[in-house]
Amino acid sequence: MITGIGHAAYGVSDLERSLKWYVDGLGLREAFRLNNDKGETRIVYLQVRGADFLELFPDRNVQPGRPPAGSSYRHLCLVVDDLGATLAELEARGVRADGPSRVGRDHNAQAWLTDPDGNRIELMQIAADSPQAAAAASHPA
């Protein structure tokens, strides 16, 4: 039985730049690294919360702002408890939203970010009257 989503994985063109953005900027925690047979960093796991992770793969073939051919990636959504406070904290860390926050058709407040390689990230504050909240209430973990 599926019990959750373990991680999302990104190829990154500059690992140190991406770590600065995700760790120093977004406030995620570097959990651990996996090395290849030569001892070089192959994967860096960033912990979002509990068993929720992002994987960063150093990849010289990644071209910032250009998704790989055939990719269907659209965005990653990170849930926040207070969108206004989160945006203020991120701004203090040097991470700016792509524009003003807004309320979507699902009643949730949302704002958008773009990482150093052009990957879109949605920040979402779940509203009590949203379809996501209703679905979670009717089928809790």
Structure in words:
With 141 residues, the protein is α/β, with parallel strands linked by helices. It has 2 domains: 1-63, 2,3-Dihydroxybiphenyl 1,2-Dioxygenase, domain 1 (Roll); 74-141, 2,3-Dihydroxybiphenyl 1,2-Dioxygenase, domain 1 (Roll). It is built from 3 helices and 8 strands, in the order E-H-E-E-E-E-H-E-E-E-H. It has helices spanning 15-25, 83-92, 131-138, and strands at residues 7-12, 29-35, 41-49, 52-58, 76-79, 102-103, 109-114, 120-125. The strands form 2 sheets. A 4-stranded mixed beta sheet has the order 1-4-3-2, covered by helices on one side. Strand 3 (41-49) and strand 4 form a beta hairpin. It is globular. The two termini are 13 Å apart.
What features would you highlight for this structure?
about 140 residues; 2,3-Dihydroxybiphenyl 1,2-Dioxygenase, domain 1; 2 domains; 4-stranded mixed beta sheet; 3 helices; about 20% helix
Strand content: 25-35%
Helix amount = 10-25%
CATH superfamily of the largest domain: 2,3-Dihydroxybiphenyl 1,2-Dioxygenase, domain 1
CATH topology of the largest domain: 2,3-Dihydroxybiphenyl 1,2-Dioxygenase, domain 1
Shape: globular
Order of helices and strands: EHEEEEHEEEH
Which structural class should the secondary elements be placed in? Answer: alpha/beta
Would you report the number of β strands? 8
Number of helices: 3
What topology, given as strand order, has the largest sheet?
Answer: 1-4-3-2
Q: What top-tier CATH class of the largest domain fits best? A: Alpha Beta
Distance N terminus to C terminus?
13 Å
Structural domains: how many:
2
Q: From the coordinates shown, what is the CATH architecture of the largest domain? A: Roll
Radius of gyration: 16 Å
What profile does the largest beta sheet have? 4 strands, mixed
Mean pLDDT comes to: 92
Unreliable stretches: none
